[in-house]
Structure of Hydrogen peroxide-inducible genes activator:
Amino acid sequence: MSTYLPTLKQLQYLVALQEHGHFGKAAESCFVTQSTLSAGIRELESLLGLMLVERTRRVVRFTPLGNKMVAKAHRILREAEELAEMARSAGKPLADDLRMSVIPTIAPFLLPKLLPALRKQYPDLKLYLREETSAAAIDALHHGQVDCVLLALPFAAGDIEKATLFEDRLFVAFPKDDPRDPPESITPDLIDESRLLLLVDGHCLKDHALAACNRPEMRAFATMLGTSLHTLVQMVDNGLGLTIIPEMAVTAGLLNGTDVQARPLNAEHASREIALVWRTNSPRREEFEMLADALRGLHAG
């Protein structure tokens, strides 16, 4: 076997350059100087005897081989991470670094309640959080940038394992004194699709809401404007329409200080499954199961 093999550092530089499309930003993400990163990639090209990146003053463009190398590098780096995780998990569980992505329709409503209690229960756990949309979070998971994701299902997440935490019901939020205000719950046929406000594409709650209503015409008529649930509620409070929000947001006080009312959505599958997910065959599976048990218990309490 050749002794001249690419180093993990060189592969990290290559992946960072492809992700950022800029030498300076890629170097910053790797915590090295631009000249160090550039030299590392040139050494890799010299080692292989092939060009991986076309360099111009304005554009960084990968060659076809360079793109194939990046795809392979992602897998190698992820497996290297898993090797380190295997060693860490052999020690005291939940006593080291753990990188977790959380989607925006969960993070502000669940984490303020759970994190202080979780820190108390596992004082040695160093939890690094990233808030990002479902698609971005799953992409980061499969590229080894995070270890697990706090996600709302169903969502096309690829090859993952999961631990269900709880079911989160969906509610319809509408302005106070709306003439169609039933006493207990709202059925999909009472929703005026021309007034329905939803999150922009990329947020899985939009798909959960439309699927629960089971009215295909809603997808065409629904106005997708909000970048956050807070924005949608402010729109509803100003009489611009109605929206669908999760129970955890209602419980956390999202409607406080507004004249917005909320009633449960009375329909099949009118809830989302809140779960902790991780890569299949991860060596830290036992830790993730423990973390899920902790989160489940803290939420129930």
